[in-house]
Write a structure and sequence with these properties.
Layout (H helix, E strand, L loop, with lengths): L2 H9 L8 H6 L8 H9 L2 E5 L1 H9 L6 E7 L5 E2 L1 H10 L7 E3 L5 E6 L1 H13 L25 H17 L5 H6 L46 E3 L14 E8 L2 E9 L18 E7 L3 H15 L10 H19 L6 E2 L14 E4 L5 E5 L5 E2 L9 H12 L3 E3 L5 E6 L4 H10 L10 H5 L1 E2 L17 H14 L9 E4 L13 E7 L2 E6 L10 E8 L3 H15 L6 H9 L7 H15 L9
Parallel strand pairs: 6-7, 16-17, 17-18
Antiparallel strand pairs: 1-2, 2-5, 3-14, 4-5, 4-13, 7-8, 8-9, 9-10, 11-12, 12-15, 14-15, 18-19, 19-20
Helix pairs in contact: 5-11, 7-9, 9-10, 11-12, 14-15
The structure holds siroheme and iron/sulfur cluster.
Siroheme binds next to β1 and β2.
Length: 599
Amino acid sequence: MSKASVEEIKLESQGLRGEIAENFADAALTHVDESENVLLKFHGSYQQDDRDLRAALTKEKKEKAWSFMVRSKMPGGRISAQQWLIHHDLCVLSEGSLRLTNRQGIQLHGVLKGNLKAVIAGICHSGLTTMGACGDVVRNTMAPAAPIKDAARLDAQLLSEEISQRFLWRSSAYADIWLDGEKIDLDWAEVDVNPDVRAKTIAKDEMAAEDPIYGKLYLPRKFKVGIAIEPQNDVDVFSQDLGFIPHMVDGNVEGYTVTVGGGFGMSHGQLNTRPFLAQPLFYVKRENVVDAAEAIVTTQRDHGNRTERKNARMKYTVQTMGIDGFRAEVVSRLPGIETFPAKPLNFATVEDNLGWFEQGDGKLFCAVYISMGRLTNREEGGPQYLDAFNEIARDLGLPFVVTPNTNLIIAEVAPEQKAAVDAILAKHQVPHADGMTATRRVAHACVALPTCGLSLSESERALPGVLDEFDTILRELGLENDPILVRMTGCPNGCGRPYNADFGFVGRAPNKYALFVGGSIAGDRLAGLEQKVVIRGDISATVRPYLEAYKAERTAGETFSAWFGRTRQNGEAPTPEQFHIELTERAAKLAGAKADEAG
Ligand code: SRM
Ligand code: SF4
């Protein structure tokens, strides 16, 4: 679909309504038109087909095995026990698993067309929403996962809810199509939510003729917001279009440093597309933060590229305008609001802290490792994830938090409930992360096959096996406790955030990955393309020399990221421009060269 046509579909959609309702009313249709699929994304769903079956069905001249992915949106990943139970029950209308996403949402896959309305309505009745989970709008706002009750974290969560509320799209289409026009109060979470900012599905009486922020064309492209608290960068703030980092004065949040222009999508070999890390824009006082967000979003709305979707993300707008030009434009949209120079930022890790911790209010939380974020009941002794969390929600009434590394936190645990939580986890064979290598604990893969229509290779189904191989080498070298960030994606779109990892595997064909090395466990440095093609079977042999060199050359306590920066990058992280030159030169050098030549 050409870019112009997406813009046209939005323009003519009458508030993102299109003919979705008509398509869904027609039970004879197994799937929807492509233009309705474009609009459906704004409602939080993607039409997909089972790629495992595609070739056989094509051969048999049968139509694709169509279904829908549904994405729930939860600012800061917060979900109450009741909301969890509803999601759990909705599994029966899907292929049977819940997939935690690395933007702290939840996806159901394999929902048949006839069940989509029930699933979306069910999620809304739980008090969450799918509205704006996908599409050219502000997506789920990320916030630090750990439910620690300190001023910084409480404010970060509150801010994520304020941003979510401000940037919901305004049209009755959502309620009309999925909820029979009914208005539903959305209760984002039960954990420390300020009642004043509880979001609402937009009802008819709140309708504007045209969306007050998005207009008729919405944004040129998806838009992602994350809030991080130093030194833990769990939300990967530099990968976000828009990031916020709080600054504390006398124990309270005085304001936030604002970063702009991060984003990871790129296309192999298309040198006008590439990942960027966000740059500091300015610092604003707390009371002005959401207005500053709106000024940035509307700057992107008005200046983003609407003719070429590949270059439509805000990262390109920032590059085109220059950070100073972009800042000047944003500031001009903030009359009467003072902005200040950004504060220095210092992050140490993108990891989740797994295991039991105190919340600071007498209660505890337990962060549980979930392999690739996929919650199923594994057979034959594997973890019964679905049963375990269902039981914890149902019998103990405890809420959860989805982390940006697709793990799950059991929150608000009273000390006397700890033993019961541990017993349920043990009963359902949910492993504690204690014995795992530090690399496995932080690794992530995007969904890819069989549901993702864009995947070029396996990712979620491949990384566990790759990690087995990493584990063998790491244990052999005595590096099992060194956090080395390994991320994988099934295509260059970068959903698994591979471009700032120590090792990023980016799918380019079945069993073939481009290898990026040299990002940072802190999430603040881009990796460079090291090898254009690594065959799946050669991954061990390819990474071993790096790990051996790290083992031999590292100084006491030096992380892999720090070692790589010191020895391979002259102690300097590559700037985005250097990364681009690297990629360009290497890509040129590699053109026509042997597939396994190092770039
Ligand atoms: Fe993503 C598209 C899955 C986080 C960059 N992403 C997709 C789609 C919807 C495929 C499609 O367009 O048909 C994937 C659905 C697969 C499936 O079957 O479920 C998909 N993305 C995911 C998730 C589920 C991966 C995961 O392992 O958790 C994440 C959902 C997050 C959420 O709850 O909203 C997910 N996607 C990301 C991230 C990471 C992040 O946001 O922190 C990125 C890189 C950061 C960025 O946006 O730059 C990311 N996804 C993309 C892109 C490339 C965007 C670009 O600027 O070029 C696409 C393709 C597109 O938009 O055209 C994409
Ligand atoms: Fe699909 Fe590519 Fe995203 Fe993986 S990175 S989920 S393959 S779009």
